[in-house]
Amino acid sequence: MEDQFKVLIVEDDEVNIKLLTFFLDRYCEQVIVVGEARKIHEFIDRFLHLQPDILLLDIDLGESKNTLEIIHELGVLNCEIIITSSYEHYAIKAINEYHVSSYIVKPINGLQLQKAIEEAKQTLRYKRAYYHKTDDDAFVDSIIALPSANTIEFVEIKDILYLEADGKYTVFYLVKGPNKVVSKNIGHYERFLPNRLFFRIHHKYIVNLKKITSIQRSDGNYCLLKNGKSLSIANRRIEKLRKFLHLK
């Protein structure tokens, strides 16, 4: 069976949504549109829920924050991002800082979109081949390599308390020893770490479930770790966490 690639369209103009959907159906094989988002809160919710492979992303949705700022907060680099914008002046920032796959200036034509989608698909195929290889490797399942400027440190996965997103960086909090700051975004490690042990409770946090002592539901949702630290659980993540823990 050929690979399928999930696409989320983030766009506040109904005409452009219909145009993108038409071009994807007509010119782009192996892609399926799994959702649309017209507002920032819809973008965040549907991105976290649907986990798309490709984002077709308009930058300005007419709100106080643009979608690039949201990407910065989410640390979104585990999917391919294709910008579709009416403004050229965002291009350099988007390409240099957010490593977008393609930048298309509106009005969009079918051939531009087809080329951008093909490039994104090829990158995703390389990523899938890499992750398939590491998933079969028992060594990687117990040890993680954390690169810094001058060294590569090996850390046992069982010794990780939680991870915190800090823009393009990720901070590893360990059972013992100093914290480790790594120049990869948290989305990379969300896919890399064993999903039976680690759960993303918030756009900022991934937690080792074995290090949680309790989940508190008074005054908001948060979890308590064995070291006494408390971490917020996002409202949009609590139901998924309950299902994961077989509480529903």
Question: What descriptive keywords fit this protein?
Answer:
248 residues; alpha/beta; globular; 36% helix; 15 strands; 5-stranded antiparallel sheet; 8 helices; 5-stranded parallel sheet
Question: Secondary structure elements and their pairing?
Answer:
Layout: E1 5-10, H1 14-27, E2 31-37, H2 40-50, E3 54-57, H3 67-74, E4 80-85, H4 91-98, E5 102-105, H5 110-135, H6 138-142, E6 143-147, E7 152-156, E8 160-166, E9 169-174, E10 180-182, H7 186-192, E11 198-200, E12 205-208, E13 212-216, E14 222-225, E15 230-232, H8 235-244
Parallel strand pairs: 1-2, 1-3, 3-4, 4-5
Antiparallel strand pairs: 6-7, 8-9, 8-12, 9-10, 11-12, 13-14, 14-15
Helix pairs in contact: 1-5
Helix and strand element order = EHEHEHEHEHHEEEEEHEEEEEH
Largest sheet: 5 strands, parallel
- Tally the helices: what do you get? 8
Strand content: 25-35%
Task: Write structural notes for this entry.
It is a single chain. It contains 8 helices and 15 strands. Helix 1 crosses helix 5 (110-135). A 5-stranded parallel sheet has the order 2-1-3-4-5, with helices on both faces. By secondary structure, it is an alpha/beta fold. The chain is globular.
